[in-house]
Amino acid sequence: MTGRRAPSLALLAAITALAFCALHMVVPALPVLVQVFGDSPAHVQLVLSLYLGGIAAGQLIYGPVSDRFGRRPVLIAGLALFLGGTLLCVSAWSLAVLIVGRILQACGACAGIVLSRAIIRDVYDREMAARGLALVMMAMTLAPAASPALGAYLTEWFDWRAIFALLAALGAIVSVTTVVRLPETNLHPVRFDVAGMLKSYALLFQSPGFGSFALCSACTSASWFTFIASAPYLITEVLGEPPSTYGVMILFPMATYMLGNAAAARFALRIGSLRLLIAGRAVALAGAVAALLCYASGGFSVWTLFLPIAFAEIGDGLSQPSVMAAALSIHPRIAGTASGLMGFLSMAMAAVGSFVVALLPHGTPLGMILVFSGFVAVALAAAIFAVRRVARAEKMVLPVVAAAGDGN
After folding, report:
1. Which residue range is the domain that position 127 belongs to?
2. Is residue 4 domain-resident?
């Protein structure tokens, strides 16, 4: 740990969770929005896909700007934008207005995602950062885990607008707490201009392993968002279940993701973050294979849809803190830029995956399972390649350090 004052992990979890609450809480209402606005499922899917796209695009800006101007002021500005977009969603009188509100909401919410990771890396080294990220991700998963069920019941009992009213209240609480409690952790700001930002991106991609770590994280995120983009329609339209069924069943993969986070937090220092990364991706691949076998067996039900994904999420929970910590540790001085770039790639890939699955037939889970499994397989391959690159680079550095020590 560095000499900087450590921020509250609970606050960082809440800041990050806000973005994912806004994502997951709306998902059960998507079939309802089709009826409310009298539009196609593909168009209503933009409420999810463009939210992911907004989160992706915003992270390219927040990371470098926070490296220059500090984490605290940039984060506060992002939370204010989130509140403005949420209020527009509450008052939306058409699908187009709702989509614009969602884009603004996403562009604000992504500040919490990218900057919470950068703040943790500001105050911890790689192994401790993996542990800190795991604890934050485990805590922040509690809120998104309850969000789908809460969104489903709010839609059934009140109206879809009640979802955004609650999000506005939560956003206001988090914003006020951030202003009062969050210290500045970026004590060595770097110069910011477009040329410098592009050089930072080039430096990251030229570094051993960064591109593969980023690809691993992006494909991991995309596999999950592919599932949640398709599952509500499979539940309601194919199996004939109410939206609340999705809200309840999604708790299983959320809980197993937390289980993976807990294991990562416990064993990161003992086993090493890079070993946990490979182990997690292997577990996720086993879950994807199980999903394919369940479909091939001919039994399609709520349980055969969710249980294999829940097993895969153990692997996601194990690997995501490790892959983020490894990527952000390559160049700690530009951790904000690295976090933003990783977040952009993750959300961009997730947006593509969720949009592609929306175009596939909703009468069968096969399309979703194939896209999900493809992302999982690529993530494992990228993880293996990245770990080998980093291990090779570290072995090259150690002899140089030893030689320098012998010369003293």
Report:
1. 9-185+193-403
2. no
